[in-house]
Amino acid sequence: MIEHLKIEDIESALDVGEEVHLQSCWNNISFDREYSDNYVRLLLNKPQYGFILVYKINNVIVGGIVAVVNNYPFSTEQYSDVYILFIKEEHRKGRAAIELIKAYIEEAKKYKVKEINIGCNSPTMKEQVEKLYEHVG
Q1: pLDDT (tens digit, 9 = 90+) per residue, 49-95?
Q2: Does an H or E element contain 137, and which?
Q3: pLDDT tens column, 13-51
Q4: Radius of gyration for the alpha carbons in the chain, expressed in angstroms and rounded
Q5: Which of 24, 25, 75, 126 has a CA 20 to 30 Å removed from the CA of 16?
Q6: Which of 7, 136, 12, 133 is nearest to 62 (CA)?
């Protein structure tokens, strides 16, 4: 099930985020839990800047997607971009990623943005991410 992150689920989401961070190509960069908590709370309190969706199985967070909504540097019109897509390792071969990306696209449309961006910022998994995006359509 996909839903917007709730305040009471922040700690669980950060636990998953930290676990996934340690497995990522950015594991040489510290995971600052307090900073991450503040960032998450900013998005929850100011949804005009973006949103966080989580994927739950049996009411347990196993992944999520953090998206931002920004103005172009040259316009007041906006675009949306995926900041982070994170999924616990044991759920990466399932439907979590596909469903989160589709939910992100639908949620981003509600902001009436000019562009909905889904990039690949994982240099070590570029081919896998490209295949995933092709599968989503």
Answers
A1: 999 999 999 999 999 999 999 999 999 999 999 999 999 999 988 89
A2: none
A3: 999 999 999 988 888 999 999 999 999 999 999 999 999
A4: 15
A5: 126
A6: 12
Residue with tokens 């019109």: 77
Helices (H), the chain: 10-23, 33-45, 96-109, 126-136
Q: How far is CA 104 from CA 10, 54, 81, 132, in A?
A: 19, 10, 9, 14
Residues 6+ apart with CB under 8 A from 17: 31, 36, 64, 84, 86
Which residue, chain included where needed, has tokens 């950015």? 26
Pair of tokens at residue 33:
């839990």
Tokens of 51: 């949103």
Q: Rounded to whole angstroms, how far apart are CA atoms 14 and 18?
A: 6
This prediction has a pTM of 0.86
Contact 67, 39 (CB under 8 A): no
Residue 48, SS3 per DSSP: helix
Calpha distance 38→111 (Å, rounded): 23
- Structure-block tokens of residue 105: 């696209």
CA–CA separation, 111 vs 77, rounded Å? Answer: 11
In degrees to the nearest 10, what's the CA dihedral of 83, 14, 5, 85? Answer: 30
